[in-house]
Amino acid sequence: MMKKLRLLSSILVLLLFATTGYIHAQTVSGIVTSAEDGQTLPGITVLLQGTNTGVATNLEGEYEINLNSDQFENGTLVFSGVGFIQQAVPINGRSEINIELATDTQLLDEVVVVGFGSQIKEKVTGNISSVSASDIEGVPVNSLEQAVQGKAAGVFIQTNNGKLGQGIQVRVRGSASVSASNQPLYVIDGIPVTTANLSINAAATNPLADINPNDIESIDILKDASAAAIYGSRGSNGVVLITTKSGQSGATQFDANYSISTSQPSGKKDWLNADQYLELFNEAFANSSTDGTINGTLFGFTRDELFDTFIPGWDQGYDTDWQELAFQDNTSHKFDLSASGGDDKTRFRVSGQYSGQEGIIIDNTFDRISGRLNLDHTANDKVQIGTNLNVVKSVNNRLSTDNAFSTPIQLVALPPVQRPFNDEGEPSRETVYDNGLLFRDGASFETTVFRALGNAFINYEPIDNLILRGEFGADVLDQNEERWYGSSVSQFTGATRGTADNRYVRVVNITSQAYANYIKDLTEEQSIDITAGLSTQQVETDQVYVSGIDFPNDLFRQVASAATIDAGDATNTSYSFTSYFARANYSFDDTYLLNISGTVDGSSRFGENNRYGFFPAASAGWILSNEDFLEDVDQISFLKFRASYGFTGNAEIGNFPSRGLFGAGAYGGASGLAPTQSPNPDLKWETTKQFNVGVDLGLFSDRVTAEIDYYSKNTEDLLLSVNVPATTGFTTQTRNVGSLENNGFEFVVTTRNFVGDFSWSTTFNFGANENKITNLDGQVIEGSFVSQAVEGEPIGVFFAREYAGVDPDNGDALYYVHSPDGKDYSAGTTNSFNAANRVVIGDPNPDFQGGIGNTFNYKGFDLNIFFQYVYGNDIYNGGGTFQSANADFFDNQTVDQMDRWQQPGDITDVPQARLLGGNGTGESSRYLSDGSYLRLKTLTLGYTLPQSLMDRLSLRKARLYFTGLNLLTFTDYDGWDPEVNTDFTASNITLGTDFYAAPQPRTFEVGINLGF
Fold this sequence. Notes:
mainly beta
């Protein structure tokens, strides 16, 4: 027994020592310094490899980490920090480990694309916003601008509506023109490309929807004059430089991606059901009839007679949700495949994509198939040649403009008491307005685009440091639009046996460029980078149109089958640019930076007295973090001040506004000529002068980086159509008249909150812009609905009567009577719409906008959450006079109209319902809303398979993912969607107007990425 007790005691002692030995804590401490200058490094992550155990160095670069005995003997510490190369150090029982981290020169030498070259970001003195491939890959949109939305400070991007392939408005630091284009210049792989709207109807198409976003390596947006002036007369609206992916030396790698998605409307409106509709309209009739009852008469009609005339079937018990009939179930597919690789001599990347997208609106689809080859070859130590070629075909089944009853969203105007289909299952013809469902099978509108975009280049290095480059680029765009309207929609068209038209447009855009780049270190402290060259661009557009009527039956849909060709024409137009440009960058001690650039541009569009313009710019930078007086400030890793000033131009108007033109046509049975435009030989570019001052900041070894900018942007010599005396034989002439300004502030901050096995980074950007028209030579330019361009106000302000609510005594709509300047209500209110005066009631331009994104990674999981926001803009609902009109006519109404005034003493904003009474339905601030919103733009959750599993499957990578687009929208706007600009009136002046515009889609996508 004693022997057993001694044995048990010995075992317990051994277990105690073993246990205490195992759990005994060991401490490892040390100091982390920079291998470059020996400075201590705060904020460096020290992580025990393979675990979540870790600490960060303090302000003195010190760390201390507690480990158990096994970790102390066999573990490895991983030291990492932004801007430094990660280093793994075995512990081997050491209690003190001091290390030096080498600078990650690749990060510090990050390159951004600039006009006709590239530059190390650290030495950039202009303002450039950069968006990388990782920021836009996998976003389920069909155009690259949508993928960039909210991700670049000072760049406001707005999709007109939720239709596929439609126009998108992009404003870089505000609107710089009243009548010329406000869209930026797009340059793909060095070649300016065609982005003009080529649509046959008022709803703009978007040529950039032909570009596969997954082919893009980076997008660099040149915003200030220093960055954009090298593009001279085309730089006022900013320049978007798109660089596509290229091959790298190494074994050939294949990447494949497949995704499937579905979409739904991001917002809907609440409409009256049948019971509510009858209640409201019975009351509206009674309020308007001769004796105030439903048994009275209105314009000689009883209630039943009037309803039978306008809304057949109203008493048959129907309760139709017309809004739901406008939307369709949909499934979209996308497949990408690419191969890249090469050797030291030749590098290549080949890619292809098929995208089949179904929209949320019935009959709306967009299919695209594209292929790209990027190839470069080093012939010898002096010559390099290459090519980039993209070929694409897209087919867009389009819809009518927002203003047409044939567009599906306008189905909501039909009363819920009418049925959508007849007894045979065909769309009913007994509706208040033409039933848009007839277009589902009885019409088609197909736009097909074939596009070849590419360039070839040669680099020649005759001597060290000097590279000569020649480029030839072509962008050939063929667009064919075919519209057919069958006999079943004759009530829309008037063609009882059908009608069709066909328009074909070809745009041939040819660019030739030759320039030299010289980079040299003059001394140990001084270096220069000089670029100079010339560029020519020739753009020619051919257009052919033909239409016909009367077909044998609805199976024949081509114009060739028409009995009568009732219209046709053909046109040709062209324009050209010639540019001479130069840029010089000077650096002293990598601390003092100077940039000077200048461009001389010639254009066929302007008068013979102003055919050429000069656009200079200069900028300077001072990298304070390289100065001795900041040497001991460890918290600041980078600090740079920069400032710029320069001139850019805008030439985006018609091709012949400066010339005297004649028109040819039939006159008295013979061909004749008549003058159509008076010449203006002095016509020239709009010129924008821009000043920019900014700060670039890095803190705690670049764990926090920030960019802060202020700019002032003034445009002069606006291109406007000006009234001229009728004695000249003309009524207007295009002249340089007027000016406007934009002033703004931008802020971008990026933080690396955690690094290591678990990483978390945050990016936030903010852009505020104030626009004002300072001179229009006394003109007031009217846009559609209530939009105006007027001196002293932002472009596109809403100018209308100001709604004052409802008279609680009698239910009349009231309007403010303002003083002449519109600044006070001294004259009170009136119930007469015409007695009230028009004043500025709102501004469609946002006060500020931007985005905030968070990216998380943990082992194989990745999560990206991105919010976009817009604040301070107003929206005018032009459809409100029909949709929310307190039963003025027979259109279905929004449910808020049930809050109408009914008896004396009622306090409400909805006037008394009066059928055909026009009570409060005039264009006024009643239909104005706050358009601010915060939107969960994208959410992506992915999982990458462990390397061990991928090795067994012979895969280089394998990732599963889910992406959501427009998942949540927080807004006070009561329409379908706050991101809106109705398509048939979209212009520089008519902004922020809603008129039955389809909402943005809310999309759910799942996919898989494979690499092998």
